[in-house]
Structure prediction request, 301 residues.
Amino acid sequence: MEPTNPQVAPPAQAVNSHQAVTSQELKLKGFKAYEVDTALNPSLSYRRRDFYKVALVTSHCTVHYADRSIELNGTCLMFANPHIPYSIELHDPFLKGYSCLFTEAYMRENDRSESLQQSPLFKVGGTPIFHLSEEQMVYARGIFQKILAEQSTEYLYKGDLIRTYLQLLIHEALRMQPTESFVQHKNASSRITSLFQELLERQFPVESPNQAMTLKTAQDYAQQLGMHVNHLNRAVKEVTGKPTSVHIAERVIGEAKALLHHTSWSTAEVAYSLGFEYPTYFNIFFKKHTGTTPLTFRRDT
Prediction:
């Protein structure tokens, strides 16, 4: 469906003018909720923050999420990861809904569970958007309204209560997630693979053309994890069916696509930021894994 009045803007701008959201405030409190009812600035911006996001979106729009585009028509629950760039193309006059930003430290304050990056809702390649039924919409909207009401109170334990509300939203989405998406560590190989995958994700996002990846090979990751590379390769291959090097390459390609799509960096700058010494090496690598060159990919997206 062709938008009649497309507008693109970073989601972090979509707040009411009287509710400015600052990184400092988030780091101090760990969370910030707000109601969204605003027009979007029609400029595309590439920004990633240090926080996670859960949003209830009721407007017709398209979310450009990393190298994917997902149309939202109806009421949707959206989950955003600070490691994945995204922007919103609005097809309605206004973006409406609710949003809550939070840090991983806040969500794990009283919890020893695994990183949110391993959650089916936030991990790279996961399902970040859920279309809700009328009943699910009423439930989710009620939770957001409770969060909004609670954050302005002086209740001593409101942080714990809001964390519980966020967990309810997460669990509501997890109930809609295919069972095979859940991760359970059954043995040492599974635990090692999880550690490797989390370390891999920590290398991203690449937010500056002057920032170069430091871990590039399976040997680098094995050394960082304090084990022999053969041990790491066996564990990862046993659990995922793919070698460690393939996981690294797929993640680098995913980030390369995101940078080419969301930034105006030159291919040389993208190449350097992803650890390639020369742009030619990056071009060869990219074409090998995608069948096209970086410039052609950028032009066609």
User: Anything to note?
Assistant: The longest strand covers residues 31-38. Residues 1-20, 41-47, 179-185 have pLDDT under 50 and may be disordered. Residues 58 and 75 are 4 Å apart (CA to CA). Strands lie at 7-9, 31-38, 52-57, 61-65, 68-72, 76-80, 86-90, 95-102, 129-131.
